[in-house]
Design a protein that fits this description.
Elements: H1 3-14, H2 17-27, H3 39-47, H4 67-74, H5 79-84, E1 101-105, H6 112-129, E2 135-140, H7 151-159, E3 165-170, E4 193-197, E5 200-201, E6 214-218, E7 221-222, H8 225-233, E8 240-246, E9 253-257, E10 263-269, E11 285-290, E12 296-300, E13 306-308, E14 319-322, H9 340-349, E15 355-358, H10 360-370, E16 383-389, H11 396-400, E17 408-414, H12 430-434, E18 438-443, H13 448-461, E19 467-472, H14 479-487, E20 497-501, E21 507-508
Parallel strand pairs: 1-2, 2-3, 3-4, 4-6, 5-7, 6-8, 8-10, 9-11, 10-12, 11-13, 12-14, 14-15, 15-16, 16-17, 17-18, 18-19, 19-20
Antiparallel strand pairs: 20-21
C-alpha cells in the first residue's frame, strides 16, 4: 500500500487534514521530551562518573519508540483518534492497524452513513493488512428505519479474525428492523466476552463457544426459548451471564443450564411501544435455573411476575440482590403486586441465603405480601442491605422478625416525600436480642431525624451490638452533637463502637 493511498483515505474519512496536524503535534508527543534532571541530582551523578545524555526539546521521543509500544499507546485511544495519527508521518501511516481493536459510536460522526463508511473502510484496511481484530465495540443509532444494514457483515468479519471481545449496542431499534447476528458468531472459538443489545438471534443447529466467560444479552429477540436455552448451555466455561428480557422476545420460560456459572443477572424492559403501565399487565414468565456453582444472583425484575419452575433452592453461599424494577415506585395501592402467591414462592426459593440486598420497590412488595401472610423465615441470613423509603420505615421490625439470626444490617433511607419525626413503639425482633452485631444507617437529605430515631432504636434494643455507624448528607445535624446524643442513650450493649459521618466528612468515634 502506497503512502498517498493511505493519506487520501484518512483525508476522505475525516475531512479536516490541517486541524489533524495541529492536534497531534501535542497529542502524539512531537514536542515532548523527558524531564530534565535537577542540578543537585546531576552533580551527584557526575561525582559518580555517570553521564547521561538527555534528548533535546526538538527530538521526537514518541516516534523513536518501538512499534509495539506505540501500538499499545494507541490502544488506549478511541479508534477515531488513533486513526488520525496516520497523517503525522510516513512511519505512522499504518501503525493504527497494529491496534487489534475498533471502538466507535455512530453519534460521533456527522451522520449514520459517514459512520458506516468509516467502519467499512477500517475493516477493509484490516483485511488488506491481514491484521487481527481482537476487540470490537460499536454503539449504533440509526437515523431512519430504512438506513442500510451493516451489523451482520461486520460481526461476520471479526468472527473470523480471532475476536475475543465483542460489544454491540443498537439504540432505539424497532423490533421489525433488528439486525441479525450471523451464524459465524455461534462458532467463534476465540470469543471471551460477548454483549449484544437489541439484535435478532436466529436459530442455529450448531453452537459452540468454548472460551466464552462473560455474556450479556439485552433486549434481544430470539428464534424461540429452545434456542436461547441451547445458546447458554453451549458455553462450557461461562461464568458471568446477564439477561435483560423484553415481553416480545419469543421466550416464555427462561432456562439457564450451566455447570460453571457463578454470577447471574436477570432484568426486564418493556418492548417497543409499551407505556409504563403496560408493564404490569404482562403475563407471568417462567424461570428455570440449574447452576450449582452460582454465587451471585442479581434480580432486576418484579418477583411477583416471575414463576420459578424448577426445584431450585438457593444455596446459602449465594448473594442475592433483589433490585426490583424502577416502575414499581409509582404505584402504592397494590395494583402492581397482584400475584402474592408467585412472590411468596420466589422468596421461599431464596430463603436459605446468607447475604441479601433488597431495593425500596422490593420493600413495598414485601409490605404488600405481609398483609396477607408473613414472609418465610430466612434462618441462615447473616447480612442484609436494604433501601427503605421513609414512609416504609415502620415495616422494619416486622421484616426483621423473618431474619432471626441476622448479624449485620445496612439501611439506606431514601425518598423523603413524607417526613416522619416520631416512630411509634416497636416490637423487638429476635435478632436484636441474640445476634445483631453491626448496624449502618445512611440518610438522604431530610432523613436525618428518622435516622437518629433508628439509631436510638437499635442502640436501646441490640444486646450484642459491636458497632453502629450513622451517615448523613445534609447540614441539619452536627457530628459532635450527634455523637453526644448517641452516647447519652441507654445502650443495651456495653462494648459498642459508635461512628458518625456528616457532610463535612468528619468522622467521630
Amino acid at each position: 500500500m502506497s503512502v498517498p493511498k493511505v493519506y487520501e483515505q484518512n483525508t476522505l474519512i475525516f475531512g479536516f487534514e490541517q486541524s489533524l496536524r495541529v492536534d497531534f503535534i501535542s497529542l502524539s508527543g512531537h514536542r515532548i521530551s523527558q524531564p530534565t534532571t535537577t542540578p543537585k541530582l546531576l552533580s551527584k551523578e557526575k561525582e559518580k562518573g555517570i553521564c547521561q545524555e538527555l534528548p533535546s526539546r526538538d527530538d521526537d521521543v514518541i516516534s523513536s519508540l518501538p512499534d509495539s509500544l506505540i501500538s499499545h499507546m494507541l490502544s488506549c485511544l478511541p479508534t477515531k483518534e488513533a486513526v488520525r495519527t496516520s497523517v503525522l508521518s510516513t512511519r505512522w501511516k499504518s501503525l493504527w492497524l497494529s491496534v487489534p481493536s475498533l471502538r466507535l459510536a455512530s453519534h460521533d460522526f456527522p451522520d449514520y452513513n459517514s459512520f458506516v463508511s468509516f467502519v467499512d473502510k477500517s475493516i477493509d484496511l484490516y483485511r488488506e493488512e491481514n491484521s487481527c481484530l481482537h476487540k470490537l465495540e460499536l454503539v449504533i443509532r440509526k437515523e431512519n428505519d430504512n438506513d442500510q444494514s451493516c451489523v451482520t457483515r461486520w460481526i461476520d468479519f471479526v468472527s473470523t479474525r480471532k475476536v475475543n471481545h465483542l460489544d454491540l449496542e443498537c439504540i432505539l431499534v424497532k423490533r421489525e428492523f433488528l439486525e441479525a447476528v450471523p451464524l459465524s458468531l455461534y462458532l467463534c472459538e476465540s470469543l471471551l466476552y460477548l454483549r449484544l443489545h437489541r439484535v435478532s438471534l436466529s436459530g442455529s443447529e450448531s453452537v459452540s463457544l468454548p472460551r466464552l466467560k462473560t455474556m450479556c444479552l439485552e433486549q434481544n429477540v430470539y428464534a424461540d426459548e429452545a434456542f436461547l436455552e441451547s445458546f447458554i448451555s453451549s458455553c462450557p466455561v461461562l461464568e458471568d451471564l446477564s439477561i435483560v428480557r423484553r415481553d416480545d422476545d419469543n421466550v416464555k420460560v427462561l432456562r439457564v443450564h450451566s455447570q460453571t456459572l457463578t454470577s447471574l443477572t436477570l432484568g426486564f424492559e418493556p418492548g417497543d411501544g409499551h407505556m409504563l403501565f403496560h408493564y404490569f399487565d404482562r403475563e407471568i414468565l417462567g424461570l428455570f435455573i440449574d447452576s450449582p456453582r452460582l454465587k451471585h444472583l442479581n434480580f432486576n425484575d418484579d418477583v411477583s411476575k416471575c414463576h420459578i419452575l424448577s426445584n431450585f433452592i438457593m444455596s446459602p453461599s449465594v448473594k442475592v440482590n433483589l433490585g426490583g424494577v424502577r416502575y414499581m415506585s409509582y404505584y402504592s395501592d397494590g395494583v402492581a403486586f397482584s400475584n402474592q402467591h408467585v412472590a411468596r414462592s420466589f422468596f421461599t426459593r431464596v430463603s436459605r441465603v446468607k447475604d441479601l440486598v433488597i431495593s425500596e420497590t422490593i420493600m413495598k412488595l414485601i409490605d404488600f405480601c405481609m398483609k396477607v401472610e408473613p414472609l418465610p423465615q430466612f434462618r441462615d441470613l447473616s447480612c442484609l442491605e436494604a433501601k427503605v423509603c421513609l414512609v416504609d420505615v415502620e415495616l422494619l421490625p416486622k421484616l426483621l422478625e423473618s431474619f432471626p439470626n441476622l448479624n449485620s444490617i445496612v439501611l439506606d433511607l431514601t425518598r423523603p416525600t413524607i417526613i416522619t419525626e416520631q416512630i411509634t413503639v416497636w416490637d423487638v425482633p429476635q435478632c436484636l436480642l441474640l445476634s445483631l452485631e453491626f448496624v449502618e444507617i445512611k440518610c438522604c437529605c431530610k432523613a436525618e431525624v428518622v435516622g437518629m430515631k433508628l439509631a436510638e432504636y437499635f442502640a436501646e434494643n441490640s444486646v450484642f451490638l459491636k458497632k453502629l455507624v450513622l451517615r448523613w448528607r445534609g447540614y441539619v445535624l452536627d457530628e459532635d452533637s450527634v455523637l453526644r446524643d448517641l452516647l447519652a442513650l441507654s445502650w443495651r450493649s456495653t462494648t459498642c463502637q459508635i461512628e458518625v459521618c456528616g457532610p463535612l466528612n468528619k468522622t467521630c468515634r
